[in-house]
């Protein structure tokens, strides 16, 4: 069948769907053309430029366009709402299944169900193989992660078994191979039905070749996993109820692997067997059914328990009665207190183009890139009395200065000498105010801001920002600031000829698959010195506790367990969005995702996933990372005196979690790049780097690089950061405290 045309303007990572999709930046870049004397954040006006198009990897007329600019926000989804409200609906009825209506007989051992090769199981004939509800003892659930729980259920094990059988002949009787786009809409939809239950894809296959063939190369927006909840009840069901108290409810909430929200309690009890619940609730009657109502926005939970004696027991609590029970707003506030936005202003030699997109000259332009940052930890440096040395996180592409400082990109064309002479006579760098032409390369400050409110209210939608203030001196830090980024080896990567994989990979193996040492994530940790008097401008909550016993608890927690999208999660940052008067401004906004899907790792190459970073020159790193075509020779000599830098190319191949955004909400657009993502237990899980939109349905999703990889290599980005801190002998308050 004919595929629909897919048009994309891209900044943050390759996001493709089987239907027309726009992908836009979660960072914003524009040329400053007017006086900046007021230094207010609403001066962000994107400078739209045409982009090129090529053939789509599925044989469509157009493939996603690479704007060749890691921060430009040229195209945003139309009709984005001014404000977005967290999803607090209580439509928590579980998906219809044919599993047994009653809990399984305890004598049945679900761990000993046998699976036969070449047999596909179905719920009607094999109901035990699809059981998932009320299976586990509460104490067992407390010892497992949310992902471990669903992967122990017969339903998920059977779904995985059936998927592996389907791979053999699911393409109209032939083996499935997504590598060269041999599938169609029916095959795609069949695949989505499996992934909806599993929540992740990318690890299936018995060899690297098979894993590449079974990897779906587009964003499966129609394959979002959703959490399972108890059925809810109506007020009429409460007639003749008997109210009870659950004395240990706070402990249950604290140990709940699904999180601290009321809805997470419903999830926990969905998987809990009745015997353990009867014991936990101190009931002398056998439980036959339980139902719940919850309100995550207001922090309320109700439970209705039916017993064999035809009694009904009712329990109700809220966040005030049970202090471990949380509301949506608590998670937004947590992110808000630790996040801020920076405006990175560069003087960059950039091309002028005509109406056909042809380069007609170069000018030194004042450009401005906006992104979201958040604090991870503080480096203990008692020798520096004037500054706090902080570890702050964002995306690599947000702090990509290679387009500003890499002179080698102009080493071509008939006007090469003229362009390079202009470059040398007017060196690129940074600026503060567009009227100031500071040739002296010092005392230029990166500026930033945050929301005007100290506390978010329960009905918060967006929070406007204050005027921007100086944060830290940039010239004396920009080369040393990139402290940690993930760079590792991967293999088994497919690549299409029209994507020019030979520009990134050295050679192919016997299966035609590529490998590289330059794989990683769109995640960057900066180590920057911020004057102590400036900290309150971006992180007032930290400013109030820094240097005290409370500081350590302020910094975020993380875990090394693999994440599942069935656990509720949140992310928030500082996008640039249209206001009611059609102007654009920076504001704080967040998304709650109940569900989603994980691509465990990229197995299909596309140059759009490449990230660039400008770092201080290191001879060994240069020759290792830039060995292809002897590119390391470009950077052996400094382009600017006393500022010897080099370019790194990193392919964002790391696990990506896609958010499940419902109720006509829109994902976070440009400016939100770098936004922190946490689960409903206040654990750091990832960082936002992209936005995509299905034009047919209007559905959007953000792409989140996970801290804990879901791939088989199991890399944890924070654990890798800690190893580097230990190697470099940097003690910090939280991650690497002094022994």
Automatic annotation (TrEMBL):
Residues 28-39, 55-96 have a biased composition (Basic and acidic residues). Residues 40-53 have a biased composition (Low complexity). Residues 330-689 form the DUF31 domain. NCBIfam families: MAG2960_Ser_prot. It comes from the Bacteria. Keywords: Signal. It comes from Mycoplasma yeatsii 13926. Residues 1-23 form the signal peptide. This is DUF31 domain-containing protein. Residues 28-109 are annotated as: Disordered.
């Amino acid at each position: 069948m004919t595929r629909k045309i897919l048009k994309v303007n891209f900044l943050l990572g390759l996001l493709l769907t089987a239907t027309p999709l726009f992908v836009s930046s979660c960072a914003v870049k524009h040329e400053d053309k007017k006086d900046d004397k007021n230094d207010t954040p609403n001066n962000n006006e994107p400078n739209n430029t045409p982009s090129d198009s090529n053939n789509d990897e599925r044989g469509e007329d157009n493939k996603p366009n690479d704007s060749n600019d890691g921060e430009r926000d040229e195209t945003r989804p139309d009709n984005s709402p001014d404000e977005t409200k967290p999803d607090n609906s209580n439509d928590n009825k579980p998906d219809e299944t044919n599993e047994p209506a009653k809990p399984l007989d305890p004598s049945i051992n679900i761990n000993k169900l046998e699976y036969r090769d070449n047999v596909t199981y179905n719920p009607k004939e094999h109901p035990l193989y699809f059981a998932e509800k009320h299976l586990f003892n509460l104490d067992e659930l407390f010892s497992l992660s949310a992902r471990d729980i669903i992967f122990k259920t017969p339903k998920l094990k059977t779904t995985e078994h059936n998927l592996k059988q389907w791979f053999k002949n699911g393409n109209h009787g032939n083996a499935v191979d997504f590598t060269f786009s041999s599938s169609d809409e029916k095959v795609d939809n069949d695949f989505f039905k499996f992934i909806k239950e599993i929540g992740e894809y990318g690890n299936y296959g018995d060899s690297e070749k098979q894993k590449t063939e079974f990897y779906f190369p587009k964003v499966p927006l129609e394959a979002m996993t959703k959490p399972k909840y108890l059925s809810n009840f109506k007020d009429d069901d409460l007639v003749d109820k008997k109210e009870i108290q659950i004395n240990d409810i706070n402990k249950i909430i604290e140990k709940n692997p699904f999180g601290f929200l009321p809805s997470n309690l419903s999830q926990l009890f969905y998987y809990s067997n009745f015997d353990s619940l009867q014991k936990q609730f101190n009931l002398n009657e056998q439980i036959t059914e339980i139902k719940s109502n919850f309100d995550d926005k207001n922090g309320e939970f109700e439970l209705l328990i039916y017993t064999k004696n035809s009694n009904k027991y009712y329990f109700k609590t809220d966040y005030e009665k049970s202090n471990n029970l949380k509301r949506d707003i608590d998670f937004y506030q947590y992110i808000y207190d630790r996040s801020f936005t920076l405006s990175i202003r560069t003087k960059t030699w950039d091309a002028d183009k005509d109406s056909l997109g042809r380069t007609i000259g170069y000018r030194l332009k004042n450009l401005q890139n906006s992104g979201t940052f958040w604090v991870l930890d503080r480096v203990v440096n008692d020798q520096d009395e004037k500054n706090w040395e902080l570890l702050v996180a964002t995306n690599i592409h947000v702090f990509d200065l290679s387009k500003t400082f890499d002179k080698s990109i102009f080493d071509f064309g008939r006007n090469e000498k003229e362009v390079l002479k202009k470059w040398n006579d007017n060196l690129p760098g940074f600026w503060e105010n567009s009227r100031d032409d500071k040739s002296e390369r010092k005392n230029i400050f990166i500026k930033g801001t945050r929301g005007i409110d100290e506390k978010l209210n329960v009905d918060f939608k967006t929070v406007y920002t204050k005027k921007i203030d100086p944060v830290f001196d940039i010239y004396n830090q920009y080369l040393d600031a990139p402290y940690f980024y993930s760079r590792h080896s991967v293999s088994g990567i497919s690549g299409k000829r029209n994507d020019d994989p030979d520009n990134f990979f050295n050679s192919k193996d016997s299966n035609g698959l590529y490998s590289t040492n330059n794989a990683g994530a769109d995640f960057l940790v900066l180590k920057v010195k911020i004057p102590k008097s400036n900290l309150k401008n971006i992180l007032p909550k930290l400013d109030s506790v820094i240097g005290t016993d409370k500081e350590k608890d302020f910094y975020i927690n993380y875990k090394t367990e693999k994440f599942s999208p069935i656990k509720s999660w949140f992310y928030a940052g500082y996008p640039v969005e249209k206001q009611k008067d059609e102007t654009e401004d920076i504001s704080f906004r967040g998304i709650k995702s109940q569900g989603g899907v994980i691509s465990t790792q990229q197995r299909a190459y596309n140059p759009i996933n490449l990230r660039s970073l400008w770092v201080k020159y290191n001879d060994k790193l240069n020759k290792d990372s830039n060995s292809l075509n002897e590119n390391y020779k470009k950077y052996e000599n400094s382009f600017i005196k006393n500022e010897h830098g080099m370019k790194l190319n990193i392919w964002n191949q790391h696990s990506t979690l896609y958010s499940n955004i419902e109720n006509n909400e829109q994902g976070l657009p440009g400016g939100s790049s770098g936004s922190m993502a946490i689960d409903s237990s206040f654990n750091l899980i990832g960082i936002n780097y992209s936005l995509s939109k299905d034009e047919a349905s209007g559905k959007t999703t953000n792409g989140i690089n996970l801290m804990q990889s879901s791939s088989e290599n199991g890399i944890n980005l924070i654990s890798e950061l800690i190893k580097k801190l230990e190697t470099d002998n940097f003690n910090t308050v939280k991650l690497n405290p002094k022994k």
